[in-house]
Amino acid sequence: MKFRVQITRRAGIADPEGATTAHALRELGYADVESVRFGRDMTVEVSGDDEERALKRVTEMCERLLANPVIEDYTVERVE
Amino acid sequence: MTVAVIVFPGSNCEHDAVYALRALGAEAELVFHKETDLSGADGIILPGGFAHGDYLRTGAIARFSPIMAEVERHAAAGTPIVGICNGFQILTEAGLLPGAMVANRDLRFICRHVLVRVESTDSVLTSNAEVGQVLRIPLNSYEGNFVFGAAETAEGVVLRYVDDRGEPDDTINGSTVAGLASPAGNVVGVMPHPERATESILGSSDGRVLLEAFMTSVAAVPA
Known about the structure:
Structural class of chain A: alpha+beta
CATH topology of chain B: Rossmann fold
Shape of chain A: elongated
CATH superfamily of chain A: Phosphoribosylformylglycinamidine synthase subunit PurS
Strand order of the largest sheet of chain A: 2-1-3
Largest sheet of chain A: 3 strands, antiparallel
Number of strands of chain B: 11
CATH architecture of chain B: 3-Layer(aba) Sandwich
Strand content of chain B: 25-35%
Mean pLDDT of chain A: 96
Oligomer: heterodimer
Number of strands of chain A: 3
Largest interface: A-B, 14 and 23 residues
Strand content of chain A: 25-35%
Number of domains of chain A: 1
CATH class of chain B: Alpha Beta
CATH topology of chain A: Mth169, Chain: A
Helix content of chain B: 10-25%
Number of helices of chain B: 4
Radius of gyration of chain A: 16 Å
Order of helices and strands of chain B: EHEEHEHEEEEEEEH
Structural class of chain B: alpha/beta
Distance between the termini of chain B: 8 Å
């Protein structure tokens, strides 16, 4: 089973890459760009066929390692 | 008194720390991150570098190194612990200090001396200094832009970046926080490198007042 993990930085937490990219887009003429936020995208493949158990474990992985709960949020969805 | 300087794969400032501590009269030993016993340590340094390649997030994987259980035990017991640069990042990831590090505001690696002002002497790193004292110390980092979490209170700052007039300066890397202490004051993270500012030939000896405070605290740990 494969799970897609998307990690985003919480609103209000500095995101220098996002701020710089938003600035570059505005410089290119996209004056309507209000903000750009960077995140991370991972695909975690796990063995077994118990989806409920696997989802619980991948969520636990997010809490313990994949995301930093101090500044980041995450979503997990099965993709395969 | 013995200071354990932890070596993670990718640490690169461990010898600087040992050199500086020994030059100031401390006993300091390198301890590999896979060790599981720090019972002989009266103080702990988490040095700078790129522990475990800094993959995922700085310090994110290092916090699960086997030695970290001992570091956490010592933190709770009141042992003086200082994380320098990458060591600061590891302490935040481990939850031993609040907050987190993000990329420098201008997306550049910073490698130069900066000015920091002592905000509080209630920590093992700043107890020999005076509030308001300005120190010149080298900063070497890309992800040194400290942020508090949304749910956290902005407390414990012991060192702040300042400009030439001594006023707080967030234009260096985006944050004014250069040093942060736990509520008990025994766990301290510092982004610039005091261990590289201990002799005038290095451009500054201002780091001595910080390391000497740490050594005083280490010496006070009951045997």
